[in-house]
Amino acid sequence: MNNFRTEPFLWIHLAGIAVAPLLLQLVWLGLAVGDPLPLFWLELLFVGSIGIIPILWMQWTRPFDFFSILLVCLKPESVTEQQRKILSLLKTRNLKILSGITSVILGAIAWQLYQWAPIASMTVTILPHWRLLGLMIAGVAFLLSNLFIQIPVSVLGVLLTSNQQWSNTQPYSTEKILSDFTVFGFRVNKIFFIPLSEDNS
């Protein structure tokens, strides 16, 4: 049986978490723009709703398809049996719970960034002193940071799958991939710089 943990796409998407600290710093800077509104919880609700809800909803209903890079993705018929088993793992209850826990942690991080935002106020003086602009910057950056954290967390969930669970996992139906997963990019038969994984026997 092949070791599914050597799947190149998993490690590529796991490495994406390196972008998250930069995005969270942008959230921090966005929250420093302008004067805070009297109802601070309204600002946090705004930023949190933009950043957390869309990505969490995606991971719960149509998880991100790992077998894509930038603007290209593998056609469903080109996804190997081993890769389709990985897709099946993304639909498990454990992965959904893991996504929910990650969202709670990210919400707590957003609260801490909000608390420390005044420290960054001198850094953003070049921007217009518009609070709504700052909240939009923070919201979009928080959305992207959620994406670049939730996907690697899902990868970790797959990598931590026991060998017994892996053996009992059935490959996901090729016909259902496009309807049940979020697939980005132009569909291709092969991404040339990534070797195709062999099917498990």
TrEMBL record:
Q: Transmembrane segments in this chain: where?
A: 12-33, 39-58, 94-114, 134-160
Q: Which NCBIfam families match?
A: colliding_TM (NF033183)
Query: Which source organism?
Result: Aphanothece sacrum FPU1
Q: Which UniProt keywords apply?
A: Membrane, Transmembrane, Transmembrane helix
Keyword 4Fe-4S among UniProt keywords = no
User: Is Transmembrane helix a UniProt keyword of this protein?
Assistant: yes
This protein's name: Low-complexity tail membrane protein
Q: Which InterPro entries match?
A: LCTMP-like
* Superkingdom assignment: Bacteria
